[in-house]
Amino acid sequence: MSTLLQSRDRNNFLNLSLTEIKITAHSHWALGSILKILAAGLATENPPQLRSLGIAISLLLAIYALIQGRDPQTRNRTASDWWVYVGLVEIVATTVYARLIWQQLSILDPFRVIIVCIVALFIYQIPWRSLGWELTPWHRFAASIPALTTLVTIEDISYLSLLVVAAFYGRIALRQKEIRWTYISLVFIDLAIARFFMGKFLDRYPLVCVDYWFIFTIYCSIRSNPISTATTQ
Fold first, then answer.
1. Considering the entire predicted model, what is its pTM?
2. Banded pLDDT at 32 (limits 50, 70, 90)
């Protein structure tokens, strides 16, 4: 309601000022988010009956935060970015919550990193600025969530997932024309290779993994020097 009134340049509604409406709306959102966190802790022990309703409410809370982060006139960029971060975190939390209460979703576990990379790449491609949002929070979220997901699931992650994450950061490097993103790609490629050799050939070829990390170090040093020189010039 407050966002709608603000977009229409109206300062009051039913004898309530825009500020009062905002405070009331934000208070309801904060209360709903707190209750959602408490309910999520209980739901993991005793799955609720109205699971679909709980997921829908959680998504509505996230959407509310994202809408608050939309500021075409950039009145307060810091506050707008904060709302976007909160909304995206709520979406991630809702996804985790859905996985905990719906055991049927376990069929997607082997592909969760790949799914995250696809979603992150989709987020990265959307022209958020033309839609009224700042690019920075969306791009930072999209760039960080694949790596974070990989670290959380590192114990049982597949070689294919590691290579997909490497390809994702290679795509980011190509889009931003920033070679340093390829360092992250190489980390995940080396991790996949290291896990392969440690699982099958560590006893026979103990120096193979060291060789790959040595090659990675050389690559980083070679690539960083031209960038540093160009920056200096």
1. 0.76
2. confident
Spell out the SS3 assignment of the chain. Answer: CHHHHHHCCCCEECCEEHHHHHHHHHHHHHHHHHHHHHHHHHHCCCCCCCHHHHHHHHHHHHHHHHHHCCCCCCCCHHHHHHHHHHHHHHHHHHHHHHHHHCHHHHHHHHHHHHHHHHHHHHHHHCCHHHHCCCHHHHHHHHHHHHHHHHHHCCCCCCHHHHHHHHHHHHHHHHHHCCCCHHHHHHHHHHHHHHHHHHHHCCCCCCCHHHHHHHHHHHHHHHHHHHHHHHHHC
Average pLDDT over residues 138-159: 91
pLDDT at 229 over 70: no
CA 220/CA 182 separation, integer angstroms: 9
What pLDDT, on the 0 to 100 scale, is given for residue 214? 56
